[in-house]
Amino acid sequence: MTEKLQQFKEALHEIADYLAVFALLEWDQQVNMPPAGAEGRSQVMSRIAEQAHNLSVSAETIRLLEEAEKAVAGIDPDSDDARLVKVSRKQLDRELKVPAAWVSDFAMTTATAHNVWEEAKANNDFSIFRPHLEKIVDMRKQYADFFKPYDHVYDPLLHFFEQGLQTKDVVEIFAALRPKQVELIKWISEQPQIKDDFLHGRFPEKDQWDFGVEVIKDFGYDWNRGRLDKAVHPFSTGFNLGDIRITTRVYENLATSSMFSCMHEAGHGLYTMGADPALDRTPLTFNYSMVLHESQSRLWENLVGRSKPFWKHYYPKFRSQFPTQLGNVDLAIFYKAVNKVEPSFIRVEADEATYNLHVMLRFEIELALIENRLQVKDLPDYWNAKFKEYFGITPPDNARGVLQDVHWSSGYIGYFPTYAIGNVVSVQLWESIRKDIPNLDEQIEKAEFKPLLGWLVEKVHRHGAKFECQELVQRVTGSKIDPQPYLQYIETKYTEIYGA
Question: What is the pTM of this model?
Answer without folding.
Answer: 0.96
